[in-house]
Design brief:
Strand order of the largest sheet: 6-7-8-3-9-10
Number of domains: 2
CATH superfamily of the largest domain: P-loop containing nucleotide triphosphate hydrolases
CATH architecture of the largest domain: 3-Layer(aba) Sandwich
Radius of gyration: 25 Å
Largest sheet: 6 strands, mixed
């Protein structure tokens, strides 16, 4: 059973209706758990950004309550409320006439921090987002790339150590390569700071990669489904959600399905210092066409065919293997490695330790196991599958 942690943010019956009768958000109930990233997705004009801006009251709700750490903030001082939340937008909103250090220091200065504490915090955050303070602190926004400006925007939002971070299309204005890098950096950062994040995007792939939970909105601000990425992709709650996530949701699911022990195959292992004749004899005895080759410290070297002959050691016949992923990586990463290296299998390493291999067949089974685990409501490791016959 999925137990939702205590919410940091709770929206109870929140609606936004404009004077012309347009409903931007309709009677929204939504809990954002402490320390999680919740992503709002949906078509343009469905109320995603309006919801975000109602949380920090840049837009006032027409009805309902907004609770922050159990406190109703709907009718309090919106300026004080915003100082308890970091806010990151697509164009970063940096002050062009201030250098990077001054931009990051904005909220701590407003809160009356002393100079040393402010400087220490600025340096700490620039390091955290991957911008060397000595190199970047005195630069101005126009001297930075788009990706670097986005990093500064995140640092500024975190400056006063707020419990909540609101992010509205934060990586939407940069090219796809930089965007993917920023996503990865933010995931790394979130593991360290564990903020409660409400994140708006129009990109489902980004939502699936970034979110612990995803809220899908339809036009008129209706919440269609609120679920973990795997369940959203595996069991769309409505026809709208099924259409929105697309017919290729199985492929999208690759990015949120991690490699577990049950997904691994364990072909025979030989070592570089083994004699070729002995090594290949052991492979043929195991009815294996090839074996994994490890060095004397049991680190991955590559593979060797069972058909190799001749004198000497495996070192002289082994082929290097460059396709590998860390244990716990997602299936999308493993599949990408296979394609990049034109490999029939990919090694899985725990640190430097070899733990097994993933093949196209076991990758497919891992995906089936993930889907079936949602249907049954059990852990993927507990799912036993009938093997799909190969042609």
């Amino acid at each position: 059973m999925d137990v939702t942690p205590e919410p940091m943010i709770r929206l109870e019956g929140v609606s936004k209706k404009y004077d012309d009768g347009t409903v931007a958000v309709h009677d929204l109930d939504l809990d954002v758990p402490v320390g999680e990233t919740v992503v709002l997705v949906g078509p343009s004009g469905c109320g995603k950004s309006t919801t975000l801006k109602m949380v920090n009251r840049l837009i006032e709700p027409t009805s309902g309550r907004i609770l922050l750490q159990g406190e109703d903030v709907t009718h309090g001082d919106p300026v004080k409320l915003r100082r308890r939340m970091g806010y990151v937008i697509q164009q970063t909103g940096l002050f062009p006439h201030q250098n990077i250090a001054a931009n990051v220091a904005t909220v701590p200065k407003l809160l009356g921090w002393d100079r040393k504490k402010v400087n220490d915090r600025v340096n700490e955050l620039l390091e955290l987002v991957g911008l060397e303070p000595a190199k970047y602190a005195k630069r101005y926004p126009h001297q930075l790339s788009g990706g670097q400006r986005q990093r500064v925007g995140v640092a500024r939002a975190l400056a006063a150590d707020p419990p909540v971070l609101l992010m509205d299309e934060p990586f939407g204005a940069v090219d796809p390569i930089v965007r993917e890098r920023l996503q990865g950096e933010f995931i790394r950062l979130q593991r360290e700071v564990r903020k409660t994040v409400l994140f708006v995007t129009h990109d489902l792939d980004e939502a699936v990669r970034m979110g612990d939970r995803i809220a899908v909105f339809s036009e008129g601000g209706h919440l269609e489904q609120y679920d973990a990425p795997t369940r959203l992709l595996g069991s769309p709650a409505t026809d709208f959600v099924a259409s929105f996530v697309g017919a290729d949701r199985g492929l999208k699911r690759l990015s949120v399905t991690t490699i577990g022990e049950a997904d691994l195959e364990h072909p025979p292992v030989v070592h570089l210092t083994d004699r070729v004749a002995e090594a290949t004899a052991s492979l043929r005895a195991a009815d294996a066409r090839w074996g994994v080759v490890l060095d004397d410290d049991d680190r991955l070297h590559g593979w060797v065919s069972a058909d190799e002959t001749g004198d000497g050691t495996v070192t002289e016949r082994a082929r290097r293997m460059e396709a590998w992923v860390p244990f716990g990586s997602n299936l999308k990463m493993a599949f990408a490695e296979m394609l990049q290296h034109d490999a029939g299998w990919v090694a899985v390493l725990d640190g430097e330790k070899y733990v097994g291999v993933l093949t196209p067949a076991t990758l497919h089974e891992a995906l089936r196991r993930s889907v079936e685990s949602d249907v049954r409501g059990v852990d993927p490791e507990a799912v036993e599958l009938d093997r799909v016959p190969t042609v």
